[in-house]
Amino acid sequence: MTLKLFNTLTREKEEFKPITEGEVKFYSCGQTIYDDLHIGNARAYVAWDTLTRYLRWKGYNVRHVQNITDVGHLTDDGDQGEDKVEKRAKEMGLEPMELVEDQIERYFEDTKALNIKRQDIVPRATGHINEMIEYVQKIIDNGYAYEVDGNLYFDVEKFAEDYPYGEMANKDIEQLKDEAESRVEEDEKKKNQYDFALWLNSEGSGHLMEWTAKFEINSEIVESTGYPGWHLECSVMGQKYLGDEFDIHAGGKDHIFPHHPNERAQCFAATGEGQARYWLHNEFIQVEGEKMSKSEGNFYTVRELLNEYSGDAIRLHLVSSHYRSETSFSHEGLEKAEKELGKARRMVQKVGVPETDNTEEEIKEQFEEFMDDDLNTAKAKQYLMETVSDLNSVREDDEEVSPAAANTVIQLFQILGVDITPNTSESEAEMADLLMEIRDEAREEEDWETSDYIRDQLQNLGFEVEDTDEGSKWLK
After folding, report:
1. pLDDT tens digits, residue range 281-324?
2. Structural domains of the chain in order of their starting residue, each with its CATH number
3. Is it true that the peptide bond before 258 is cis, omega within 30 degrees of 0?
4. Which cellular component, as a GO term, is one annotated location (predicted)?
5. 234 labelled as ligand-binding?
């Protein structure tokens, strides 16, 4: 079967053909690490983790790089405003790196709870300042940058004479000019308002995170104390760890412009290569039918949601929609996901975790067909739940109960990042079994009060009780 991915650059689903057969080099834009992970960003990271899992399942050797931005991401467009990390650190009375270290720890706790595997390389922007300075010098040497008062800007107009610039966002230079003039406050230092910063001079500004850089411009040395532009970071880290040209670059819909076009332009200007062949972008989520925002009071962090729902249920809810669909995130959806998770675990408990590695080819082929269609996790998950229903409907003593089918469903859910194996310890299982025996005796004696009481106590302990024609069962 052939995997097809929607390439934002061409606006088409394209057959995926890696540069090197059997190898996939993959870069995804990561977290600006000034606040807890919210569910909107989590959707992107779940999507790219699922893609990585699926590629590996198909036999590819994947190197996945996802950055951490800890400097340079400003609060406003047009290279204006405060650094987001510095702003939050000041509000909390912390040094920026104090905030960053704490937030990185919390970030990895949250992503682990959502079964997001840690990427192969997780580079931090502040660890690559020297490479960024060298990269800016390459852009200068190739004629695509200019300097004003120690600030280095990318010359979009000059670049557009030699390379395509606005094709990812489907915009031409005149459109970009009009949008820039209406979107951001005028910056007198720039030749054109759609130019963007490679390096910003912060001398005397009170900026807490700054480095001294030297650039050679027209045979003269310009020294500037400052920090890198936000777009520069991913250009440098992506090409450093994956090469000048790699396979996949992913990010949120908001990166379609200006972040990714600017990132790509810098790469062409410095190396002659435009980074990735396939550009993937996830849509935003809506919360309870509205755009998620703190001002609207519908803003959810993953950490908050984990107080009410399991990480597997949150993940299952996120993969229940296609990554390019503007899906609605809701408590009702999470409750449904918890029920679906319980249904799947009941199936595993009924069949038992198979000791065999055998799989059901027909189930695998149908799952793969959905996933090959631009990573359609929505249809793949729906199909797996239908298979779970089929397996649950078969009597336990029926020969049609297939350990191979159950094993296949378990494995395929793992590709979606969802663990459907019952998570009950041996001591918990023994306790539940004992209580169920007492309850069964009470039911035989028609002591419904005791039976209901034991059922309620089991539910308080996190066990679901189901009474069937074949007898009573529990599920953690």
Report:
1. 999 998 877 777 776 667 899 999 999 999 999 999 999 999 99
2. 4-282 (3.40.50.620), 308-415 (1.20.120.640), 426-475 (no CATH)
3. yes
4. cytosol
5. yes
